[in-house]
Amino acid sequence: MIETITEEQLTPQQAEFWVRARQAVDMNNYPYAVSLLKALVKQLPGFLEGRKALRACEIKLNPEAKRGGLFSGMKISTSKLTSSKKDAATQLSALEDELENDPYSIPVNEALYTAAMEVNFPDLAAFALETVRQGHPGNKKMLHMLASHYVSRDMPAQAAEVYHDLVKLDPTDSVAVKSEKDCMARATMQQQKWEEAKSFRDVMKNSSETNTLDKSDKKGLTRAELEERLGLLSARYAQNQQDLAVVRDIAGVYEQMEDWANAYSFYNYAFSLSNNDISLENKASEMNERCRKAQVEEIRRRAAAEPDNKELQEQLAQFSKEAAEQQVALCRQRVENNPTDPQTRFELGQALFDCGNYTEAIPELQRARNNPHIRIRAMLLLGKCYDAKNMHDMALRQLEEANKELIEMNDTKKEILYMIGLLYEKQGKKEESLAAFQQIYDAEYGYRDVARRVESSYGN
Fold this sequence. Notes:
The protein has helices spanning 12-26, 30-43, 48-61, 65-68, 74-82, 88-99, 106-118, 122-135, 140-152, 156-169, 174-192, 200-216, 223-239, 244-256, 260-273, 278-305, 310-337, 342-354, 358-368, 375-388, 392-405, 411-426, 430-443, 450-459. 76% of the residues lie in helices and 0% in strands. The relative contact order is 0.04.
């Protein structure tokens, strides 16, 4: 059995190593920090805080590792390590050597989980799986493994978060759907300490408050109902500001109220409380963007009302430019934190496009195009980039391909067809241009200026 060692339990010499390692991290000297931290955790397998710092440094040094980690030589090395289970404590040290160059490796972290459980170190086992969750958020098998680990340790709140991620990945996963509800219920019981209630009246009081929140936990609430729900949640927040579920719910209420600034603040705080929950980071980013857009729209509205106000017009131009640049910087940071996530690549491509930086937007959108969930949107934006660079033939190829993949005549297909029509028009191909506009005309008469374009062609 390995017991957790805290910073206070370090010897003076070990504490000096720890201080030097943290100083190296502060100076971004990650190779030196890794050498110090690695020696420290090998000497002290139970120093989990040091191991977490080590892994963070390794990830900084190997941001691309998770792209090929699953099929790298690590798999062979891991099989050698796990072939003998005589000394799991020794394996903990050997596995750290494997993780140095591929910290997100699924097989090596799975082996670390197994070794940690054999020496009865469940916190380290959870950390190994959380590392995989961070690097491979779409791996259902490992997410189920992590959730089950939390359930076995009676940590329902953490298990519910993982099951929530699984449901987002696959809404048809009946095990995850049911388990999330069960874990949330168990977490509520723990939070309200039903087992410690002094009387039936205490239990009923807590239950009544929960039911009130549950009934209001739906979309389409009136402003008064949202404010009532916010009041109940705020009371819980005042009792425990570290409760992730409450912080996330408050953020959700502010989002429904379209109070983007407060929604951003609470989603951002929820992310800091979570174990790098990417969905919360994405939500915070979305709220921040909506807040900026709302500010730009307000200035734009005032500028439209006072077109002769030169100061207001300059303010609008400057604010729009700064908002776009801030969004690019934010998206770049998110890509750096999660370089294999196609959604963050798409958002960076969108931000670069909005700034007029079409050249840098193209490779980001090309990467995002490989994900089936955002493929069409990425192809549409790629077409716009090519068009902006006067590469009309490449824009057409991109949009024609996207059009073939879209069967339903939805808003996206209409926009694609409209762009195709305009591009053919630029090339002087009137028949092909008209054919594209006719498809939209046949589905929605009032779409943009399609009716005028189609009908004038018959008049001529």
